[in-house]
Structures
1.
Amino acid sequence: MELPKNIKDEIWDYCRLNDITDLNGFIVKMLTNGFTSEKFGSTPWEKPVEVKEVEVIKEVEVIKEVQVEKFIEVEKIVEVEKEIFVTDDEANIELKKELTKVKETLKLSLSDFEKLDEFRRNLDEKLDEFRRNLDEKEKEIGILKEKLETEKSKPKKEDDDIYGGKRGYLGSNTIDLWNNKKQD
């Protein structure tokens, strides 16, 4: 028969504290006493109970240490797949040399790329500056065109000539041309 765990633990603790080593014998004894008590009652009817007083003085110093050891077992299963390549040391040396060359080439390529990128940025800056200058020049050209249109739309004075209306200077032969032009 199986005893419940809590009862078993209580019996075990009691036996440990009272130095009872035969655990199974103690359990049978307690079972018999309990069954007898149940069967005949707590006090027998046939015999009167004799009460004897016995005075016993014992000095017992009991110091008990209970050590509890706990073991935690953790089991981890890790599956690792490995591919092992068997190679020749000379081939490894050659591969390392080739890898070093490739790394150097890559470093040089990166350096060239950085220079190219810097050149592109400088070119972008110059293009932006050129566009700004071009915009300014187009504005200036627009202003000059407006002035030119304004000058063209002004009516010309008939008296104007290339000398500012003075009809030529003394000794100039253009006065004759001026006079001829008026007569036509």
Note: The chain is about 60% helix and 0% strand.
2.
Amino acid sequence: MRTLLFFIAQILLAAPALADEAAVWAALREGGNLALMRHADAPGPPGDPPGFRLDDCKTQRNLSAQGKSDAKAVGDRLKAQRVPIAKVLSSPWCRCVDTARLMRVGTVQVEPAFSNVVVLNDRVAELTEAGRAVINAWKGPGTLLVVTHGANIAALTGGVNPASGEIVVVIAKGDGSLRELGRLPIPRQ
């Protein structure tokens, strides 16, 4: 009996999360919304090794095998949910570009406004303002997907720090700020 009550409690606790996730998917299908995705798993400390170069992926932190698999799974889930991705923007860092390309949901455009604020920490305010300008200019149709870094998403949203590969769905408010609608974790098989 105790085990049965435990499982019932787990189902009841999970139900709101499932309902919230369903609402987030519905918002993405409507179009005109924004999906901010942290690049998939790229092991190592934040930032990049000393002497990294944007034009040479071998000098940067890159996606792990799990990160590559997760990026494909996220793309498959976006397609299965019929999310109309109209535009895909990426940070110029290889782990972001690779995540975006592996999802196979659209042509990837590199957007310097979403450059890594951890590495370019003297330009956080400038990059955040430029990123907000790009986001606030988006009117659709369809969904804008931005693949960037966790610290960038935190700066853009006022503190939301997603896990690797997680999508934060936001809407732009009239004052230029972003309101989180919800998050979509990496789908697990």
Note: DSSP finds five helices and six strands in the chain.
